Amino acid sequence: MPRAATTSDAFNAVAEPRRREILNFLSLEERPVGDIVDSLKLEQPSVSKHLRVLRETGLVNARRDGRRMLYRTNAEAIRPLYEWTSIFERFWRQQLSRIRDRAETKEERGAESDPTRRGGKHDPDPSGN
């Protein structure tokens, strides 16, 4: 099956690390191209190319302010990416919860079989004083 063009698919657009960097940079506030170039240490033509792809996929909006173009992320267009990645976030939370539960169960079993430990905690004074 042929791969979708980066200019038509948000998932392919964000597959490029520099575009993710740009999205991260624009996530807090609207910015001109020069700020992106300076802050991310990228060449201006490269930034413009990446912004074009992000605009065409709808992930970034642009508006003119005098002679400058200002760019900002489009939260609605990013929502499908967030929803899809949320599936994996839930999966990893469940996995980490299972690991924690197993570790706690193993620790409790070890405490029950260790005469120097009471209540799951190490008792430095075996006499209980």
From TrEMBL:
State what protein this is by name.
Helix-turn-helix transcriptional regulator
One Pfam annotation reads: HTH_5
List the molecular function annotations (GO) for this entry.
DNA binding; DNA-binding transcription factor activity
**Chain residue ranges for the region called Disordered:** 100-129
Keyword field contains Acetylation: no
Q: Which InterPro entries match?
A: ArsR-like_HTH (IPR011991), HTH_ArsR_DNA-bd_dom (IPR001845), HTH_MetalResp_TranReg (IPR051081), WH-like_DNA-bd_sf (IPR036388), WH_DNA-bd_sf (IPR036390)
Q: Which SUPFAM superfamilies match?
A: Winged helix' DNA-binding domain
Where in this chain does the record put each HTH arsR-type domain?
1-93
Q: Which domain of life is it from?
A: Bacteria
